[in-house]
Amino acid sequence: MKKSVFERLLSLETPVYYYDMDLFRKTVDLLAETATAHGVKVHYAVKSNNEERIMRYIASKGLGADCVSGNEIAWAVRCGFPPESIVYAGVGKTDKELTSAILAGIGAFNCESLEELRILDDLAGRCGRKARVCLRINPDIDAHTHQYITTGLEENKFGISEYAFEDAVRIVKSSPNLIFTGLHFHIGSQITSVREIFAVEVAKAEKIVDWFESQGLRVDHIDLGGGLGIDYDDPDGDPIPDFKGWIETVATFRHRPDQVLHIEPGRSVAAQCGSLLSRVVYVKEGRTKDIVILDAGMNNLIRPALYGAYHKVDNLSAGFLRETGPEREYDVAGPVCESADVFGTKRLLPETFRGDLLAIRSAGAYGAVMSSHYNMRGDAPAVFSDEL
Prior knowledge:
The protein is an alpha/beta fold. The chain is 31% helix and 22% strand. It folds into 2 domains: 3-16 and 272-387, Lyase, Ornithine Decarboxylase, Chain A, domain 1 (Beta Barrel), CATH 2.40.37.10; 21-269, TIM Barrel.
């Protein structure tokens, strides 16, 4: 961040989400170029960040959208994503959501249960339409990530497990209003062992695709989901994730020339470009530790409270307004009346004072979208580097 940008940020009321648009555009451009070079289609996971400027730029680069609610589908279309580029996943799609998506003409429903297949067939018939479906497969793969963001184990609520494959084939074949287009896989999120873990997914998915084709279902589209992780520890040293390693691994999937490979990144697209900026309200000195209390709380960024997620914390004021001395150890907490409202413990920061501007880094994904008004606290609005 340039000092001139920092000085303009000082005039803003906090908390705010700050987006580095140069880094964002560079990230999206690299993703699009790498995917195109390997013939892989990309659908951006809207759930990670639905800021209009973010989404409109992604749509302008020809990427599709991965949605998990009816409202996300409507918003994606409004932000410039063609309906046919949208895929729709989620274990609890309501009749209203399914009907709206049928009428919108989306690219594919990633169906997660046998019951969903039956209901979708019925609703499509009532609408006088055909619904394109992929079966979301639960491949029973451990992605070695946090239990809250793993999705591919057999006991997870997501997807159709192997014991139900034969029933799924039977339902698809007997459903006059469903057009089977392919299979969808997703094993988890924040995966950093890129080539190792995704190679396991590719190998298992190849066998599953072969089985479904042996049953007479033509698999034209193979969606290997998302999950590529980012470097939360060193966002400045490692700002762009390993798209090359991920897409090269996905592209090893043994497939016919007329089969299309798809991926669904979200966190890796937007996380590193966003920071939650907050001012220090108090520095509470204790006998055994000092606590920096911010005006941003878990209502603005819930990831640390929800599953102990790590976000680097920088004291911007110490870097721009004064010379930094020896670092001190602080707990960094918010104002919400919950003991879980802590962004980090035992963090080494330059000596910190009331009024300092701090940046909670790598918050561009699953930050603002998961915010709430708990304690009747307000939203943290978005500001963009190229508008300051």
